[in-house]
Amino acid sequence: MSAATMADVVMPMGLPCGRRVPKGNLRWYLLRVPEGREQSVCDLLKRIIPGELLEDAFAPRKERWAKRGGAWGLETERMYRGYAFAATRDVFGLAKALARTTAAAELVGEFGRSWMPLAPEAQGWLEAAMDGEHVIRNSVGVIKDGVLHVQMGPLVGQEARVSKVDRHKRRCFVRVCDGGAGFAETMPLDVPSKS
């Protein structure tokens, strides 16, 4: 498969697709699961599938600012409704194990006869941005002379990736991957002051 063809392959929600990898490399694969049951299905899979086939299964979440009763506060929401990630070094073994279970989870991102993992750049960025509970927390920053300076949170040092800041809704748009299909994510960002 040519690089140009591979760059056009994307998963649901526009997630960038990586290349096939040899057995032994830990990669994230997208799972389709029932909406609203993402984390419970992940917990079940971690109990019934051996650790050598499934190192982790999780439904990533992120904080977001919401106005309730006239006051702003942080809430946690699922990032991808109806989807979760499986971290494995053996996707073919995992696919066989999933087929033998009654768990409502299936691998997504099949291209030809193999499953395509999440692009390494996106996987690395998400790993760095999430905490130990697989939640992307709020960041806090200031804008001085038209330049964003993030002072706290997962976006510290990531200012160059921020393409747009919406101070009113307390969020920003972050370029996770460039090139190929590209990928951007909406992130919580509180910018209380601008000068």
Largest sheet: 5 strands, mixed
Please write the CATH class name: Alpha Beta
| Low-pLDDT residue spans | 1-8
Report the order of strands and helices: HEHEEEEHEEEHEEEEEE
Q: What is the overall pLDDT average?
A: 87
Briefly say what this structure is:
The chain is α+β, with helices and mostly antiparallel strands and about 200 residues long. Helices cover about 20% and strands about 40% of the residues.
SSE blueprint:
Layout: H1 3-7, E1 27-32, H2 38-48, E2 56-58, E3 61-68, E4 71-78, E5 83-88, H3 91-99, E6 106-107, E7 110-111, E8 114-115, H4 120-129, E9 135-136, E10 139-144, E11 147-152, E12 162-166, E13 171-177, E14 183-194
Description:
The protein is of the alpha+beta class and 195 residues long. It has one domain: NusG, N-terminal domain (Alpha-Beta Plaits, 2-Layer Sandwich). Helices cover 18% and strands 38% of the residues. The chain has 4 helices and 14 strands. The protein has helices at 3-7, 38-48, 91-99, 120-129; strands at 27-32, 56-58, 61-68, 71-78, 83-88, 106-107, 110-111, 114-115, 135-136, 139-144, 147-152, 162-166, 171-177, 183-194. The protein has a 5-stranded mixed beta sheet with strand order 11-10-14-13-12. Strands 2-5-1-6 form a 4-stranded antiparallel beta sheet. It is elongated and about 60 Å long.
